[in-house]
Structures are given as structure tokens and as C-alpha cells.
Write a structure and sequence with these properties.
The protein has 177 residues and is α/β, with parallel strands linked by helices. The protein has helices at 4-10, 13-24, 66-69, 92-95, 105-117, 132-144, 161-167; strands at 53-61, 74-79, 101-103, 123-126, 151-154, 173-174. Helices cover 34% and strands 16% of the residues. It has a 6-stranded mixed beta sheet with strand order 3-1-2-4-5-6, covered by helices on one side. It starts with a helix and ends with a strand. Bound molecules: iron/sulfur cluster. Iron/sulfur cluster (SF4) binds at residues 28-31, 33-35, 37, 45-47, 49, 83, 130.
Length: 177
Amino acid sequence: MERNYRLLWERGELARRREQAFRHLEHCRLCGQGCGVNRLGGEVGICRSDARLLVSSCGPHFGEEPPLVGRRGSGTVFFARCNLRCVFCQNWDISHQDRGFETTPEELAGMTLALQERGCHNINLVSPSHYVPQILAALEIACGEGLKVPLVYNCGGYESLTALGLLDGIIDIYMPQ
Ligand code: SF4
């Protein structure tokens, strides 16, 4: 069975969503914080992110819920920074101290394809909310290279209707926590 996000890619809908998503960065209300800053112009909101994408790490992860882990792991991508400011965050160094490296959509696409190649059962996007445009750009590239495993949106749950609309039909599993 073909993934729905692949069907949207084939129809050009993924490209349309990506364009729309990047336009939102000019007056960012991509998450529930609704900062309204111009991230394309270099401003940052509560997530402290301009238009650049920061990835902290990626790899097979065996600490997720068993149905996601299976035998070969969940293909996890940990994004740096976060749209929440929880004082109890277990990933403090990543979310509050920005531990990550600047990554292009092409590089992110390569990471997802490498995880699929290693046999991971899904691509697990951790703290993705402030990077929806960049994720859509990467997904578009990865689709062209054969990405086909399910997508997990592993977020803090403070999403906007705008972002959920952009992701509608693309994400296979939402995991707000
Ligand atoms: S993603 Fe959320 S926290 Fe970041 S600038 Fe946009 S509205 Fe603000």
C-alpha cells in the first residue's frame, strides 16, 4: 500500500504545502505560541529559531513505544530547540541549549533515507513543531529518492491549526506528549 504522503507528493500537493509553510515563516504562527515574528528576516520567537534547521542527532531508537520500535528500531530524528519552555524537559541540552548542527533539507532527506535503509520501521520526528516548512521540504526530496516508511510526529502537543492543516494527510502517527 502506498503511503498517503507519497500520493500527495505525486500530485504536487507536497510542493504546494511546502511553499505555503515557508510563507508562514514571514509572520510565524506555526505553533500555539503565535509569536508573529519574521523568521525569514532573521527574527526569532519563543522557539529561538529563524529559518534555519538544527538537528541534534538521528539514529535507530529503541526507547519508544514497542509498536514503533519493532525489531529494528524507530528511525528517530531529534530536532534542536523547541516551541515549549518546560523546566522539567528531559532533553534540556537539546531543547534549551540548542545542541545541534545546521542542516539543509537535502541533508535531512538523506538522514531519513539512511534510517529507512537501516531497516527502521518509521521516521520519528522529535520536537518538529517549529520546523514544519523545512520538514516538508526534506520530505519532498526524500519522496523522490524512495522514502516510504510511516511518519511519526512526536511533538509537545502545542500545535496550531495552521500547522495541522499543512500536515494533514502527510503524517501517519501523531504522538503528542
Ligand atoms: S514556531 Fe511557534 S514558537 Fe517558534 S516563532 Fe513560530 S509561533 Fe513562535
